[in-house]
């Protein structure tokens, strides 16, 4: 499989358009309770395709090896035993989103970048474009968009809610002033 290293996360370089649309992929999904809500992970045979907070649902057992590995790493992160994720991920995305998410995956635990600084490292793209890529991240936490802040630094938006973003940053030792 053609994979590119993103920190310790592997991001599948094949876009949704490059996949063979006539092939049906078998997906598996499970949920685990975290201190800030129910977290779900969806995998196909070789990669995580989605991860994030679920509005409802119960813990569901993982009957897939990759799914068990992913949920275990999520539990370890919240227990303070893990600072980064070591998983293959393959979200449906554009080449630009992949480029942004690779850069975000390289932001270490306990550190942050602003949308503007991240945009400059990506060749001077607009900070708003970086924010839009963050907002479309289907593998939240694994590609840690919560580590990207607005100028100031201020909290900025987050698909998992601003309360979740603030909690994750505090968990990593990053203090963000109240707005």
Automatic annotation (TrEMBL):
Which stretches are transmembrane?
none
InterPro entries, alphabetically?
MethylDNA_cys_MeTrfase_AS (IPR001497), MethylDNA_cys_MeTrfase_DNA-bd (IPR014048), MethylDNA_cys_MeTrfase_DNAb (IPR036217), MGMT_N_sf (IPR036631), WH-like_DNA-bd_sf (IPR036388)
Q: Kindly state which reaction or reactions the protein catalyses.
A: a 6-O-methyl-2'-deoxyguanosine in DNA + L-cysteinyl-[protein] = S-methyl-L-cysteinyl-[protein] + a 2'-deoxyguanosine in DNA; a 4-O-methyl-thymidine in DNA + L-cysteinyl-[protein] = a thymidine in DNA + S-methyl-L-cysteinyl-[protein]
In Pfam terms, one family for this protein is DNA_binding_1
One GO term under biological process is: methylation
EC number annotated for this UniProt entry: 2.1.1.63
Keywords linked to the UniProt accession: DNA damage, DNA repair, Methyltransferase, Transferase
Enzyme class, broadest EC rank: transferase
**Family affiliation:** Belongs to the MGMT family.
**Name listed for the protein in its UniProt record:** methylated-DNA--[protein]-cysteine S-methyltransferase
| Organism of derivation | Zavarzinia aquatilis
């Amino acid at each position: 499989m053609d994979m590119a290293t993103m920190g310790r996360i592997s991001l599948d370089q094949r876009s949704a358009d490059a996949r063979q649309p006539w092939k049906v992929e078998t997906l598996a999904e499970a949920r685990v309770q975290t201190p800030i809500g129910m977290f779900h992970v969806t995998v196909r045979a070789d990669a995580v395709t989605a991860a994030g907070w679920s509005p409802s649902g119960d813990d569901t057992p993982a009957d897939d090896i990759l799914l068990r590995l992913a949920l275990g790493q999520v539990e370890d992160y919240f227990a303070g035993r893990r600072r980064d994720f070591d998983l293959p991920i393959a979200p449906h995305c554009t080449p630009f989103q992949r480029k942004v998410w690779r850069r975000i995956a390289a932001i270490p635990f306990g550190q942050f970048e602003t949308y503007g600084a991240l945009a400059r490292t990506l060749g001077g793209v607009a900070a708003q474009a970086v924010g839009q890529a963050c907002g479309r991240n289907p593998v939240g936490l694994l590609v840690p968009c919560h580590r990207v802040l607005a100028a100031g630094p201020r909290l900025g938006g987050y698909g998992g809610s601003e309360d979740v973003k603030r909690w994750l940053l505090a968990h990593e030792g990053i203090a963000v002033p109240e707005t």
